[in-house]
Amino acid sequence: xxxxxxPFPYVAPPGLNGPEPRHKVIIVGAGPVGLxxxxxxxxxxxxxxxxxxxxxxxxxxxxxxWSKRSLEILDRxxxxxxxxxxxxxxxxxxxxxxxxxxxxxxxxxxxxxKMPAFVNLQQYYVEEYLVARAQALPLIDLRFKNKVxxxxxxxxxxxxxxxxxxxxxxxxxxxVVACDGARSPLRGMLGLDFDGELFExxxxxxxxxxxxxGVPERWFWFEPEFHAGQSALLHKQPDNIYRIDLQLGxxxxxxxxxxxxxxxxxxxxxxxxxxxxxxxxxxxTFQCRRLTRFVEDRVIFIGDAAHVVSPFGARGGxxxxxxxxxxGWRLAAVVLGSAPPDALAAFDRERCFGADENILNxxxxxxxxxxxxxxxxxxxxxxxxxxxxxxxxxxxxxxxRLSRPCVYPMPDAPDVAAxxxxxxxxxxxxxxPLGNGWLCEALGRGFVLLGCGVDVPKVAGTTPLRVVGGxxxxxxxxxxxxxxxxxxxxxxxxxxxxxxxxxxxxxATLRAVQxxxx
Amino acid sequence: xxxxxxxxxxxxxxxxxxxxAAHRGLTEAESHAMNARLVLVLANHVGSRAVLDQALAxxxxxxxx
Lengths: 518, 65
Ligand SMILES: Cc1cc2nc3c(=O)[nH]c(=O)nc-3n(C[C@H](O)[C@H](O)[C@H](O)COP(=O)(O)OP(=O)(O)OC[C@H]3O[C@@H](n4cnc5c(N)ncnc54)[C@H](O)[C@@H]3O)c2cc1C
Hints:
The complex is a heterodimer of chains A (518) and B (65). Chain A has 518 residues and is α+β, with helices and mostly antiparallel strands. In chain A, 28% of the residues lie in helices and 27% in strands. Among the domains of chain A are: 213 residues, FAD/NAD(P)-binding domain (3-Layer(bba) Sandwich), CATH 3.50.50.60; 94 residues, Glutaredoxin (3-Layer(aba) Sandwich), CATH 3.40.30. Chain A contains 13 helices and 27 strands. In chain A, strand 9 and strand 10 form a beta hairpin. Chain B has one domain. Chain B is globular and about 35 Å long. Ligand 1 binds next to helix 1, strand 9 and helix 8 of chain A. Chain B: It comes from Fertoeibacter niger. Chain B: InterPro entries: DUF2783. Chain B: Pfam families: DUF2783.
């Protein structure tokens, strides 16, 4: 069954009849990133107005692979379990050269985590769930068919001009967050540079509906018999929908390649029959670029508006949700007056680092798939050729390095080197079973002072959480130590850890983190 | 560890001859491809990134031992 695109109702905004009071936060764009930010801010008690030029969810599925970290974030936003229930869970990827398997990976070899390594779920479902959640929250004012056509900075606030079916109006807010996607009109309006690499290679991306048995794994081919000289990908989504990516070469004609009479025979060769329904087709070239900085006075950029990557590591949507994670609690604290605006510099620093890591990985994968003629091609083919004969070459085969949360560099954070590396400062606090639930469910509201096997000091602004070590807590938080204390941020990132800290030490660290100094 | 740039192959003339022999009968394109594979095989054997970086610099003519 094709997805039922139900338009969301447009309601004439109050601003058409007279100026609205200055808002706290305006979010431009109700894609996955803008919606997630609105919900995260609401969870922290901050209201927002969300403006979207459209009135339906993502047309065509686009993002399909949602990482464990994204699922944990979505869980905190109230839609994680829905996403996992509907989604297709997978963790194994296989890469073939011609007909032989040359490399495979298992993304979650260890047990004891609430969320799986990855689920595949069409972007329209994720947006549908987020819209429903946002509409249920009184702090969120979600306005469809409200297109932002102008933006201006005013030192202590910013304003936007909005077009609606009933005319245009102006709106002010202390902060405007641009979540308006890869073509970001706001980026253009502010004249910001968006630098990086463009890959000439064209890819056909299609979703088809068909019946097919077998385990849902990510299958990627280099130079398969059915698509000579190019690469191909096959991946299952819910509702018997399969994603197919076919590399077309740089000289392919996108208009011609999109036509069903061209697409259907190509796909029939991949799946071995023509018994399928074409759900969505598009032809893309990919880019890896980012803004030089993400905070521009009172306008903040996140998601595709701030950075774009090629999709082979599933780092676009997943990276965008990590932006939300790093921004939400900080912006909430600034708006509520408990942190200075300078604290946002830490968001900028962390997410530029994250974007660079995503761009690096995505660009390398894209380059491996579509090497420049000459020496790039020579080494790419050498790796593929050797991979069939020598183990060492197998991990060099690069069909995408799938999204993992980055570990933020925190060289000045209090740390104990002997504790496990997995939970070092800058890393997302690893999940573990906790009573009848999960550790990740107990983290992520405010700051948590987590005592593993020991009591924690009383520190204003933190919630104490004392856990007794099961095997997973021991392996992920203690190692050989008898006890340890972790300061965990509202985005579940470890800010610092000690064996037995004094309250004053924790309080000083907390202040440094809140002010963006750590 | 640092890159060994001192003579290290016992029978250097013999190895040189073997290298040429391995390319015999190959077209220029095939020879390039074989060299690329050889570089990867040897690089993996060396393993150390520091040593490999020194080797890259030496081969490019950017450093003198
Ligand atoms: C083929 C393909 C496959 C992909 N696969 C994956 C994957 O597997 N995993 C993954 O994580 N990511 C994937 N991505 C990337 C993912 O789709 C994007 O990173 C994600 O959509 C970014 O979300 P966003 O909210 O930042 O932007 P968008 O989803 O683009 O949303 C932007 C929103 O802003 C609105 N808007 C634009 N201009 C205005 C305006 N002037 N006024 C008001 N509203 C405006 C738009 O209508 C839209 O709703 C894929 C992308 C493609 C193209």
